[in-house]
């Protein structure tokens, strides 16, 4: 049966993606993901598209943060199962938490120097170090004409500058430790790195809450113990949800990983103090 010319003209033709040239078979290109429809030529259309994009991003981030906080390990499990479109990427989520951590650290530093007592104090929940400035160091500052308030400002700035190195290094190292604790799982490092990103994002948010509470000494007293218990319980639930092991196997691993993470924090604080003093003296 022949097709008339008007009917043939009415049949939809297969278009090509304007970005990569691949044949289109739907609303989005299967090669690069660009929308098949061209951008709107009106201001109203551009604003509608922008609002839709922002709403989509905001909803993914909000959904991810809620899951991160109330469903330990679920984001990692969803990512490893291939269900990734509905959530923010692990690195994106971690960088967001790290950025918020930076802002809070600028407001209330996690490593401080008190000019009145000449004492360095640092605390991140269960991990904490402290020490006094020796007389020899004070003599060096005096000889160079540097007052203690000026040293405090420079010291805390130097520690803050070292913070990004720690944030990156801690995730990489913790991912390796998680992989070592789960050698039998036979998963690649990426799976353990995703878990480390999600866990670290949660822990940073927990430390932000610790630091923002009024009239509290972060990491000290009953509140510090409560935070440590929350973090340990979260880690255990997350491990069990991702690796599906028994509680008998999960709890010791969670305790071991929590202690290792606290050791990483302690090493960072000691090294940050050492680097700051080396740069300033």
TrEMBL record:
Provide the alphabetized UniProt keywords.
Membrane, Transmembrane, Transmembrane helix
Q: Which Pfam families match?
A: DUF3667
Q: Which domain of life is it from?
A: Bacteria
| Ranges annotated as spanning the membrane | 93-110, 159-181, 188-209, 221-242, 254-280
UniProt-listed InterPro entries: DUF3667
Does the keyword section mention Metal-binding? Answer: no
Q: What is this protein called?
A: DUF3667 domain-containing protein
Protein source organism: Longimicrobium terrae
